[in-house]
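Recall the central idea of this unit: under ordinary conditions, the amino acid sequence of a chain determines the structure it adopts. In this exercise we apply that idea directly, starting from the sequence alone.
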Amino acid sequence: MGKKFQIPHTYVIVFFIIALAAIFTWIVPGGEFARETIQTGNSTREVIDSQSFRYIDSNPQSWQIFSAFYDGFVRSPKIIVFILILGGAFWIMNESRAIDVGVYAFLQKSNSLERFKLIKFLGVNNIIITVVMLMFSFFGAIFGMSEETIAFTIIFVPLAISMGYDSLVGVSMSFIGAGIGFAGCLMNPFTLGIAQEIAGIPLFSGIGYRFVIWLIINTVGISYVLWYAARVKKDPKKSIMYELDNYWRQHHQNTDLTLRTLANRGTWMAYLGVLVIMIIAAFNWPMATMKLGTVSFTAPVLPILAVLFALTGYRSLRKSMEFFVLNILAFTIIFLVVGVMGFDWGLMELAALFFGMAVASGVAIGKDANELTRSFIAGARDILSAALVVGLAGGIIVILENGRIIDTILHGIATTIEGTGKITTLSLMYLFTSAINAVITSGTAKAALIMPILRDISEMVNLSKQATVTAFHIGDGFTNLITPTSGVLIGVLEIARIPFNKWFSWAWKFILLMVILGWLLLIPTVTMPLAGF
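Accordingly, the structure predicted from this sequence is:
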């Protein structure tokens, strides 16, 4: 009997794509578009001039497939460092048992709600999954939450396991939730905003039908996850992650969740230290303008948070050290949202935030400087494989850029799409955007690279530019959830301890369903009169 086929390791898949890209540089002629700088919102961005393509000498790549690993690291340092810092930070957090204690307390509280008939009928766990996914979907649709979901994996995977599900459900609650929201894209300035600026249409216009898209995508996506969760709950062994999830089950079983550690000197030091920092921040930034798409408001956000931390921190100290560390985690998440929405934080600021969380948590549980350092290194080492694959995946675009064939590929696709009918053109645009996610996972970079081409094609066939933008942002969402070149996906899977082949085996049917749904939702943008289209 022949050996059963197994999906190769993620590193093998990515290196194969690098080698394939190098082969293309020998076959595809070189070419380039001229670049121009345009104003997008409060910043400038370099985009291609879609009418300027010309053929040039290619630069075939050979031995460079071995330097692509290095080049990929140089190209993607921010997300690599972010992943390593997250690994170290949450290793320290886990040593405090705070997340386990929090999950245990949360489930006790939520199960008590079953005394209400409606909640019992709907199912407490179903409500939890739905609410969490909707929350992350909203964040994905409003400000493009993506990399941030890596940090939430360590929270929702243990929660899902404790609820009787598997790690796939835990990842779905945050990562899939944010992904389907990203595709729905209500007012995401980093994809929708830039795409509409390039297309020359009003910012965040067409939101009426986009909201319908978001609702339908969420209804189908969350229903699928709930169906799968119920299936696993009924028979846990039906999960392809059943054996591998023993790590989480044993970790949960071996932790005495009823035991509480009294706050010690280090815990009080951490409380006072964090409070002083928050008071200083409140004085320096007494008012903050929070932006939510086109809506914004100004409020004393940091002073309010400082007061809340003073109260909740003291109360949690009176309970136990674990609850205080959990309070630090909660405020870290709150500051993540406030920082992104109110202060335009990027990965550098978020990495600093989680590093600060690590130090505060380490001090709170009584670690000295050397112990804290050893724990942080252990966590970074544990997540290193995710950081490595991000660097390796970055090598793909390096090979194509150095081979001077990316623009030729774009030009060839544009030529193929030209001359087709409106629905066919829109469908090919959608397919093209979905496929290019395997090479360019950044929605912002993709918008700057391909939207000028899609814009011009839509003009040639008299296709609504709003429909073109919609094809772009839906196409930009779903396949990012399964491509092995996505640093965010690999980071999430590594923290959840889900091998890529297991994820692919589970996710491909869901992704295919969502891709088909996305295509069906595009058709009304051509066949029906819609506001803004």
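The mean pLDDT is 87.
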